[in-house]
Amino acid sequence: MIVVVPVVALVVDASYVTASVSSAQAFKTATLLKTLNVSALITGEVGVGKKSLARYILPDAPMLDASDHDELLTALSGISKIIITNLENSPNIKKILDIVNNNNIRVVATAKNAYYNEFADRLFSVKFDIPSLRERPEDVEELVQKFIKEASLLFCTKAEFKIKNFKPDLSQNSNSLRRQVMIHYLLQDINENELMDIFQNYLANRLGSNSDYKNFLYLYEVPLIKAGFNKFKSQLQLADRLGLNRNTLRKKIADNSKYL
Description:
This protein is α/β, with parallel strands linked by helices. It has helices at about 20-35, 50-55, 70-75, 95-100, 120-125, 135-155, 175-185, 190-205, 210-215, 220-230, 235-240, 245-255, and strands spanning about 5, 10, 15, 40-45, 65, 80-85, 105-110, 125-130. The chain has twelve helices and eight strands.
């Protein structure tokens, strides 16, 4: 019998974000699973916390990716529990699950969302599907605050995080959100030399043609135009502040239209 549990959970470094009611319920469900000798399958998009949730349930179990077939086969010898990640990448899932079943090994596995496999259905008595952060705005707010604290410690600063124009990048859930917060926190306090070092590092392996100046001019013009529009609100004021006539500004906007 398969029990499908439609829960919402987000795990960050072994701690659960429980800003939403459903996330709080997920923590209770995972805590219950820690005491049960059953196998579970956790599905969801990248960055929703599948691996961390699996580690919370089986804190002492080895964790291996399903694509590492030979290493996984070796690990299954003489163990009673294991975490298998990215189950959809297994080159021979039937063989793996047959060994697990025949040796009564407890498994907590992860897979992409909407994953289905008939052999997996027979083994896993409990299933978790973790929805994306796009469906959990309360958890996003909580995560942003957690990542701000993390960034403050990483960069050894207590500078206030400027969140006014911050729009969360949830394309890869917590993965993209953490990266975005880190970069945003770093850039808001960057100095000119550090900024030039970033540009130099970016351009180092990209130069080589006789039109590089023109090709990379957008790296300067686009941020300048965007920042100007945000501050001055109109082309007329922006042209005046940049010392350009309006026709020149319009041409630059047209030339960089795919970035603006």
